[in-house]
Queue: 2 jobs
Job 1
Amino acid sequence: MKAQSDIAVVGLAVMGENLILNMASKGFTVTAYNRSYHKVESFLAGRAKDKSIRGADSIESLLASLSSPRKIMLMVKSGKPVDDFIEQLLPHLDKGDIVIDGGNSQFEDSNRRTASLGEKGILYVGAGVSGGEEGALLGPSIMPGGNPDAWPHVKPIFQAISAKVKDENGELTVPCCDWVGEAGAGHFVKMVHNGIEYGDMQIICEGYLIMRDLLGMSADEIQAVFEQWKQTELSSYLIDITADILAYKEDGEALVEKILDTAGQKGTGKWTGVTALHLGVPLTLIGEAVFARCLSALKDQRVAAASAISGPAKTFSGDKAVFIEDLKHALLGAKIVSYAQGFALIQEAASEYSWKLDYGSIAMMWREGCIIRSVFLDNIKQAYDKHPDLDNLMLDSYFNDMLAKSQTGWRNVIAAATLNGVAMPCISAALSYFDGYRTADLPANLLQAQRDYFGAHTYERKDKPRGEFFHTNWTGRGGNTSSTTYDV
Ligand code: 6PG
């Protein structure tokens, strides 16, 4: 063990402990700190025994144990606990010391902390970490942003412990971790990762539902479909674990069927949706995925409504194998839309906050280690490598071709779901976005007329240059005064 530690990790919940063990396994010496010291003691006596890990029982001893510039990584609950710990650290920090927040923090908090610590000469890093317990231990995806002066000091540790992607020689050398951008950019990208995670999970659940309720398939039959999808463009960690989950039996029956259908959520999907509303980006699929969890939570109301409100009988008379192929296309089409929307949100944030982001590099950070890891991300990287300023992923030739191939099946599935009363909020919202995005003339002309009719909100005209606004006295009763224009 080195005389001084390379980094300290604060917070010995499972993510913190596993990150420390991961760092130690890569040759770094780590100081472990926790609010209650007995957790440190039991960690040192247990999982950390005989590893290059030391404990600290006070902030002073934690800081004294570190080589300069001192790097302190917080793995504590996001929000106030992060601010509280920074307050405790501040009187003891020197200029150039680095504070890293590895929790699921709100990006606005990381924007604020980068600025306020920066004024004091402290370098702040807001790093999204994904991959759950196992990822933290064996190689997570890490998305760091904040003060760029911190990056050269943090980079060797983060890139050593992160998951790796194969390079052109087939060697696992490319780290799923790179500098994302200034201030809260890292936590923003992690937030969108989580939103996409919500979307991917809900898309899979909708596929499961229609196979179960319209095709009348058993868990084993559905499992076989997911097993097959593992070999297709849908191949991903979430498809893999779905196949595992469907195969899991308790007393000879699929455990999944015994699990209550009410979803929990910790809030990162909601933040993504709220941020999209703030930035005016249509993020319909992730929004629907969050609301699908909210609807699932209304279990008692749904049970009552199931007998009170009628819908069509579910009957399927087609060819199951053909429908399942269509369903694969529906999942694929929706997935393309979800990533197109997620990247559009990141692009809008980059422009709003003046972050310089490399979208291909973000795709690679998600390629391994994280919950949304999938082969699909290689194609996203290639799309942005070809056109770094691509307006929308759907315009890339690879994805455009794939959408062309997928849309008939996708439409068949949504038609069948609608006619049979099977709710598929994400896959159908994705199709509406796809159709809306490729419609040159939307009905917003009528909407503008309505706004002008009741509130003199004015409209632009197709036969006049953009930026000229007109008001019509639609009823002859209103005046000619228009309301002021403003955008939200
Ligand atoms: C990850 C996950 C993780 C998230 C959980 C739970 O990247 O490792 O995104 O950060 O907290 O998946 O999220 P919900 O409780 O909101 O489903």
Note: Residues 104, 130-132, 194, 197, 264-266, 268-269, 370-371 surround 6-phosphogluconic acid (CB under 6 Å).
Job 2
Amino acid sequence: MANAAKAHILGFPRIGAQRELKFAVESFWRGDSDLAALQQTGKTLRQRHWAIQADAGLDFVSVGDFAWYDQVLNTLALLGAVPTRFKFDPKKLTLADYFTLARGNPEHFAMEMTKWFDTNYHYLVPEFTADLRFDGGVDWLFEENAEAVALGHKTKVTLVGPLTLLYLGKIKSGEGDHKFDKLDLLPKVIAAYQNVLQRLQAAGVEWVQIDEPILALELAAVWRNAFVPTYEALSAAAPKLLLATYFDQVREHTALLHSLPVAGVHLDLVRGAGQLDDFLQDWPQGRVLSAGIVDGRNIWRADLDAALTALKPLQEKLGDKLWVSASCSLLHVPVDLAHENKLDEELKGWLSFATQKTQEITAIKRALNGERDAVAAQFEAAALSVAARNTSPRIHNPLVQKRLSEISKISAARSNVFADRIVKQQARFKLPAFPTTNIGSFPQTTDIRQARAQYKRGEIGHLDYLNRMRDEVRLVVQKQEEIGLDVFVHGEPERNDMVEYFGEQLWGYGFTANGWVQSYGSRCVKPPFIYGDVYRPEAMTVGWSEFAQSLTSKPMKGMLTGPVTMLQWSFVRDDQPRDTTALQIALALRDEVVDLEKAGIGMIQIDEPAFREGLPLKAADWPHYLDWAVKAFRISASGVQDDTQIHTHMCYSEFNDILPWIAAMDADVITIETSRSDMELLDGFGEFAYPNDIGPGVYDIHSPRVPRVEEMQRLLRKARGVIPDAQLWVNPDCGLKTRGWPETTLALENMVLAARSLRAEVAAGQKAIAAPA
Ligand code: GLN
Ligand code: ZN
């Protein structure tokens, strides 16, 4: 067919369906295997992934999506722009050097890592110094392209775009560095990309995909204005460029994208479905439009008929200039559904992982190209799956829907304001000033993990398991008595993961056996998926909390994972808005909170470490998100009496720009992670005059190092400078499950000493010595 649409993907997961890359890399790090073995694993995985793409019928295989650790670091290695502080020769960078950049060594701390837009993938942050050169680096990309070509594949090479690379990097000024702006580096960066593009052209590459996901952000004018000159310079002597945008609509940049001298543009039509019509107006003749119609961020099987209907008019307009694709790189979904052998057939029939998505993309392409009959079976199966999902009783639970329809009758507010509640809570708990507590988990010893695993495998019975966990809770309570803490936790030994634990007890959640997604480097996560109305068939934590409380007269905090975190760390339904799912979870949690209260638990913590992560990419979309996220939390928390104290916990995020919403959550106590920033994160709470109680973390839980009493005193004095004494709690940054017992005991003992000395200082009417800067 002359006007045939094409099919491609923006990238394939590199980790391997069985996490082969993870295991190979970690074995290399341990010194258990050599470089040749590692190289071989990489080669095998690339080959396999290209074969999946070619067999599916994609018109190109993707080269440049493979990375030993991270694609941003790979780009820096390619350009010769790795951080200079390591003193590596960029042109002779070895794989061992590359890993040192990512992981650090005794002399050098590792490169900083942060989240790739609104995904759970973490990239290494480029470090820009005045002495950084972009003189070219390793040849890996060219070698990988040659590798694919030698296998008979037609390749499309993908690169992280120059403006995105600059935008995501950080200026690090060393001694003697003059001040400069990131965009000052642009000429050097452009020259480096030109060089790469010329080499790719010489190698016979026809298309290069350049990813500029920053176009999904609200860009300042200086960044917007940089696009035209950059792409004019790049397209001059280069293969055809496909500029890829994703993760949101790019409507505000429509005119800019039309004016860029590139051969094609990719749009995310899942996150930005509505942008297409505007975008096609005045669409430059002869330019490729890549339609990201299959969801690259989620695991649901595509509705092929709907995709076909959406793209048909496009094809009439664009002919062979229409490319069919996934919304973004498939890096963010698991590799292959074929490895899910424990999932029941019904659920499995609703899902699609990266491998299946490549087949969906080509099915859509072929149907567009007049081969609908040849892919009839695929279309039929997809239609059946969509219909089954629409009507399955596993998805639609009338009880949940009735309750949700009546949610306006539920008050999302506590009966009385904090000022009144805290008086009653204080009368009930009689806590000392600066009460000490923990965030929830205590060390997860091999013994505990083993017991959980044995129970899961059916090797030990329920009673046996209960007894072992109860022994652990007893130990944790006894330790807390000895250490002298004021508010106790039960230690969470029964929980493998704070989301999975609850997901397993709620209806509507599913779990995969191999649904691994790369989080950073060799680390992968296996998010559960929410497929149906979330319903709590019975109490989830009450037995544990009740038991723990029975062991002590100190208040025992009940411990729950909040609605936003339950949502954020899962694959979610695409058949209803996120906020609907969040409210369903919130209702289930509300019942648990009330049940805990009935069982005599006076303090209940609802963790929301992922609250900040849920923020949309565009600030214009923040208010809507924050409104429903706060509402979901309040629905879960507001069913209790005044003298029940609600805690929440957040960590490892910026809080300052969302303080009014954190305050609107109206938890009686919030514990946050602040020691890493030397209490600086707390300043925002002070300036905002955060109204309720707050426990700033006084020590970092990531290191086995035991903080000295004086260090914590210093941090607490700093905190007192910002937060009124009456509101101040004392606690570590986060849960202690990754720590060992010896350092945990010592650290908490010191923490209690620090709090006591502070109480003495205050009692003696001494003025706290101002904290040294
Ligand atoms: N309660 C959880 C714990 O202590 C909180 C973990 C978290 O913030 N990620 O482990
Ligand atoms: Zn935390």
Note: The first helix runs from residue 20 to 30.
